[in-house]
Amino acid sequence: MPDPLLRRRLDQHLEQLPLLPSVVTALMSLDRRSDEYFEQVLKLVESEPNFSARILSAANSAASGSRMPITTLRAAISRTGSHQASGLVLGLAVTRVFVPKDAWEKSLWRHAIQVATASRELARRSPEIRVDPDEAYAAGLLHDVGRFVLFQEAPEELRRVDESGWDSPDGLLAAERAICGLTHAELGATACSKWAIPELITLSVLHHHAPELAELDLEVARLVALVHVADMVMFPSAMPGSPSLDQADDETLRIRVLEKLPSSLRMDTVGLRDLLRSSSAEAEEMFASLKLH
């Protein structure tokens, strides 16, 4: 039986959760298709010195491929891309709230970033499903934010969850409900609501393990289905110490992922391996940019 006091502690923790900087909600409300998007991102990032410094650092990193030093924020965002810069700002803001202290906690962050990059890549590769890649990235990054709440307020309970032998998303949710009295998806959606995250992304956080519950709204259903698939593809990395699927054989990929894909996101083993490889590489670059190593 879950400890009734734990639920009270979690509710109090959510009430006291620091707000994200206003620049984050402003960035997430911009029209990414607008011709003025770049200038709007530049103006918002310029208003936050810490974000500006980190984007300059990312633009001058070895991963960016820049040979000449980049000394202006305009050039830095041009180098990284306004959409990439926006994702970096969101990641930086959330890491201010949830600072990982050890390898176990960093594994939660690595998984979140992997799901974010995989979600964005799936949206790019499947334009027919009509999911904005940047919304997909944000939803993927925040999908497990409830687990971050747990590691801040109830680390021992979260360790009990992770050591309880689950090997599937359903097993994870069942263990959380048995030990904590609620799931990380419910906690995460509450945190997103407190932060004034757009409802579309908040609902995707709530339903990312149960896409069938989001079918009432087509836009939500599309995003939830995409994040659900990205989470399934990157799921083993959510388990501390577990390898990703990029070294799995074709039969394992077929059983674990390919047979479970919705018709809108069909792919073969070659496409899945390419997705795993490219998303993991991009996630490691972001992990380094956020200085989570």
Number of strands: 0
In terms of DSSP E residues, the strand content is under 5%
Shape: globular
Q: Could you give a short account of the major beta sheet? A: none
Structural class: mainly alpha
Layout of strands and helices, then pairs:
Blueprint: H1 4-15, H2 22-28, H3 37-46, H4 49-59, H5 73-80, H6 82-97, H7 103-125, H8 133-142, H9 145-153, H10 155-162, H11 169-180, H12 184-194, H13 199-207, H14 218-233, H15 250-256, H16 269-289
Helix pairs in contact: 3-5, 3-6, 4-5, 6-8, 7-8, 7-9, 7-14, 7-16, 8-13, 8-14, 9-10, 9-12, 10-11, 12-13, 13-14
Summarize the structure.
By secondary structure, the protein is an all-alpha fold. Helix content is 65%, strand content 0%.
Which short descriptors sum up this protein?
globular, single chain, mainly alpha, 65% helix
How would you portray this structure in words?
The protein has helices at about 5-15, 20-30, 35-45, 50-60, 75-80, 80-95, 105-125, 135-140, 145-155, 155-160, 170-180, 185-195, 200-205, 220-235, 250-255, 270-290. The mean pLDDT is about 85. The protein contains 16 helices and no strands. The radius of gyration is 19 Å and the shape is globular. It is an all-alpha fold and about 290 residues long. Helix 4 (about 50-60) crosses helix 5, helix 7 crosses helix 16 and helix 9 packs across helix 12.
